[in-house]
Structures are given as C-alpha cells and as structure tokens.
Amino acid sequence: MKKIIVTGGAGFIGSALVRALLVRGEDEVEVIDNLLTGCEHNLKEVASRVRLHKLDIRDAQAIAPVILGADVVYHLAAIPSVPRSIADPIPSHEINIDGTFNVFRAAAQGGVRRVVYAASSSAYGDTEVLPKTESMAPRPQSPYAVQKLVGEYYASVFHSCFGLETVALRFFNVYGPRQDPGSPYSGVLSLFMKHLLNRTTPTIFGDGEQSRDFTYVEDVAAVCVKAAVATDVAGKIYNAGNGGRFTLNFIWDVLQKMEGVHIPPVYGPPREGDVRHSMADTASAIADLGHAPQFSIEEGLRRTLDWYRTTA
Length: 312
Ligand SMILES: NC(=O)c1ccc[n+]([C@@H]2O[C@H](COP(=O)([O-])OP(=O)(O)OC[C@H]3O[C@@H](n4cnc5c(N)ncnc54)[C@H](O)[C@@H]3O)[C@@H](O)[C@H]2O)c1
Known about the structure:
Layout: E1 4-7, H1 12-23, E2 29-32, E3 50-53, H2 60-67, E4 72-75, H3 82-87, H4 89-109, E5 114-120, H5 143-162, E6 165-171, E7 174-175, H6 188-198, E8 203-205, E9 211-212, E10 215-216, H7 217-229, E11 236-239, E12 246-247, H8 248-259, E13 266-268, H9 283-289, H10 297-311
Parallel strand pairs: 1-2, 1-4, 2-3, 4-5, 5-6, 6-11, 7-10, 8-13
Antiparallel strand pairs: 9-12
Helix pairs in contact: 1-7, 2-4, 4-5, 6-8
Nicotinamide-adenine-dinucleotide binds next to helix 1, helix 4 and strand 5.
C-alpha cells in the first residue's frame, strides 16, 4: 500500500485534498499537522481512513519517520497569511521556511517519489502585467511571499541537487468550505460568507476594485493530485489558478443577490503588502498537468455559501 502524506492536512485546503485523495481510491492518507490553524473537525467524516500525526514541521526528527518511504508528500503546512507575517514574522519564517526545508530534507532522505509543494501567487507581487506567467521575475512584497518563494527555490534545488522529484503549485486565492472565518487573518471570502449570513457589514480594505483569481478549493485539490502523477514536471513551478479574475465589489454583489439582501460594505484603508490585481496564466498547467478547473465562480460561491449556512 502506498503511503501518502499531507502536511497541513487538517487545514482548509489540506482537508479538501485528503478527501479528494480518498475519493480517488487511496486507502489511507496520513496527515502531519500541529493544529495551529487547522482542526481535527475538518477531517471528521474521513477520520477512520486518516492517520493524524499531531506534529510540528519545525521538529525535523519527529517528522522524518512519518515521511520515510512515502510515495507522495503534499506539503501544505504553513502559516498562510500576509498580514500575520508582517504582524508576527518569526513564527511564519520558522514554519514556512525552516519547516519546509525539514519536509524536503526528510523526503529526500526518506526515498519519497515526489513532493507537491503549496506555493503562492503572492510571489508575483504587484506586477502590472496580467495574466501572471511562471516565467515572470518574482517580486514578493511581504515576508509571507518571500517565505513561500524560498520554498519554491528549495523545491527546485532539492530536485537538482538531491534528485527529489518536486512540483511547486502557485495557488491563487482559494475559497470554499472549511475556510476559517474566525481570525483577523482569514481569507476575504470566508469573511464575506460570515457577514452575509449574519447580515452584518463587511469591511473591504481599499476601494474594492482590487481583483483576484478566486479558485474553488476542489479545483485546487484536483490539480495537486494531477501534479503528483504528471510526467516530465519534476523541479518545475505551475500556476494553479483558474485563469479569471473578479473584484471584491463584484463578489460581494453576487453574494448579496444569492441571499436576496442589500448590505453596502464599508471601505477601510488598503492592507499593507496587498497586491492590486492577480490572475493566473494557466497555459502551462493545462498543457503539462492536464489542469481543468470545474467550478465557475457562481457555482463555487453557491457551494461555499451552502456549506457555511449548514454549519453556522
Ligand atoms: N488559502 C489560500 O488562498 C492560499 C493561497 C496560496 C497558497 N496557499 C498555501 O496553501 C497551504 C494551505 O493553506 P490553507 O489556506 O489551507 O491554510 P490553513 O491555515 O487552513 O492550513 C495550514 C495548515 O498547516 C498547519 N500548520 C501550521 N503550522 C504548522 C506546523 N508548524 N507544523 C504542522 N502543521 C502546521 C495548520 O494547523 C493548518 O492545518 C499553505 O501552504 C498556504 O501557504 C493558500
């Protein structure tokens, strides 16, 4: 039986990936997660088929035996927040860089076939050019963006220097069920869902005309699985967005219409480190990975809203 590891598997995207792997027929998936921002509840329906190792990726000695001999490691564990990396940069640095190094090293030493690394579109920074193609020079604008970029460089170097097959996927703004709206660092769409269902006023930082390539979480899980099996992709980086972009004002309008309410947002100052526009060029991911997003923004928002409605 092949061992599959998902670091950060109790988190928002990681738990969706775990479910996708189980649906696909993997017998058992092992998760490494210290439950810093994730929770066991995210894996509740699949708990009997998931082995959760409550470990910290900063502890190289503890994670090495778990990773040893795995077929694939999906490395998603991180502190995934731009503002948090500015407000409190040390834990972000230690987890996102040192922890990532530990995962790659354990994989290289443990005979792992491939590591799929959760990189970030934040690496592009505020380049004017859209869509963002993988060949553009990175211009990280926050500690978080630097940290995720260092992870990409390590992915590439672990391939070239140590022969470990790695694929880095730059996730764009991911949304969907189980995204935690409970912290000031939460993703904007999870906060929108909370405000919509509570009938409270959201604060949009900036004028709301900033745009993002919002990607439904199941599409992200699907491209991760494809990256684990594609051929001739080792050492490479791919955008894992949808190839579209929507402004925050547009999304809030769509959500209000879905609920039949009218709640004008308030606007606050733009957030430090935020980029203005973001949209993926998906040509390489389509050609090399067979990436094929299934969810339109309306469908993704509807599913997400339904989930928040039934769990709120
Ligand atoms: N959500 C997005 O829009 C987005 C965009 C780009 C990249 N990403 C990347 O995707 C990955 C998953 O993000 P997410 O949105 O699901 O966030 P999340 O916070 O829900 O998931 C991160 C998981 O990592 C775990 N974790 C944190 N520190 C750890 C440590 N030291 N040891 C072990 N586990 C640890 C957390 O408990 C959590 O379960 C991250 O690597 C993030 O950088 C996310």
